[in-house]
Amino acid sequence: MLKIGNKVPDFCMESSSGGKVSAKDLLGQFAVFVFYPKNSTPG
Q1: 3-state SS of the chain?
Q2: Torsion of CA 19, 24, 29, 35, to 10 degrees
Q3: In angstroms, how far is CA 19 from the centroid of its own chain?
């Protein structure tokens, strides 16, 4: 689990605009990530 002050691990994922985004693309910026459970699952 990440805690305040931890470095973000390297990642690459799809962006909401349809492209790809990686940790290197966000270097020096603030970013908010929202994770939610898969649809129709408990949690």
Answers
A1: CCCCCCCCCCCEEECCCCCEEEHHHHCCCCCCCCCCCCCCCCC
A2: 60
A3: 14
The reported pLDDT for the residue numbered 21 is 93
Prediction pTM value: 0.54
Closest C-alpha among 35, 34, 30, 37 to residue 4: 30
How many angstroms separate the CA atoms of 33 and 2, rounded?
Answer: 12
Q: Kindly report, residue by residue over 4-43, the tens digit of the pLDDT.
A: 888 888 999 898 888 999 999 998 998 888 777 778 777 6
Handedness of CA 21, 11, 30, 38 (dihedral sign): positive
